[in-house]
Amino acid sequence: MKVIGLSGGGITALHMATIQPARVAALVVISAPAAFPEQAKAIQRSFSEAMLSEAERARMRERHPRPGQLDALIAQTRALADGDDPNFTREQLGSIAVDTLIVFGDRDFLYPVSIAFDLHAAIPGSYLWVVPNGGHGPVFGEAAPRFVDTTLPFLRGDWRRAP
Asked: The domain containing residue 14 runs over which residues?
């Protein structure tokens, strides 16, 4: 299976590739750290609905309409800061043997772009795409067409290096 994961989904994708490697044929990891840096933990600990723009609050309420659902998600975000996941070792990341594209924005407020370079160094044969002026999840809005144009050839295997 070919897996694309953004942020928490990217962490899940890294777990899939390290725990069940035979099930993963290719991997695209977007804005996902091997471990949460302190700047992300500080934001997670204080996260609240008030931190979101009114437009994002409206989208969140639409996506999570059940009573208490949004409050539960916010509480889960806060709890991430003091958990022990993610906590991938260099050895675990080094076991990823499938084509892997690492995508980070160079202006991500949660994760410094240096995390992308660390992942790239740890995952053998990985590819790194740093999106200029990209924030957390730099593949939406105006960047979406470029993400599609970049990722589809990668997933088809067009980027594969000759042996």
From this structure: 2-35+86-156
For 127, the 3-state DSSP assignment is strand
Distance of CA 106 to the CA centre of its chain: 14
> pTM to 2 decimals?
0.90
The secondary element (H helix, E strand) that includes residue 110 is none
Same domain, 134 and 94: yes
Helix (H), strand (E) at residue 91: helix 90-94
Does any domain span residue 113?
yes
pLDDT string in tens for the chain (163-residue length) = 999 999 999 999 999 999 999 999 999 999 999 999 999 999 999 999 899 889 988 988 998 999 999 999 999 999 999 999 999 999 999 999 999 999 999 999 999 999 999 999 999 989 999 999 999 999 998 999 999 999 999 999 998 866 6
In a domain, 163, yes or no: no
Neighbours of 156 (CB within 10 A): 11
Here the tokens at position 69 are 């659902």
What is residue 34's three-state secondary structure? Answer: coil
Q: In this structure, is residue 162 part of a structural domain?
A: no
Q: 47 and 18, same structural domain?
A: no
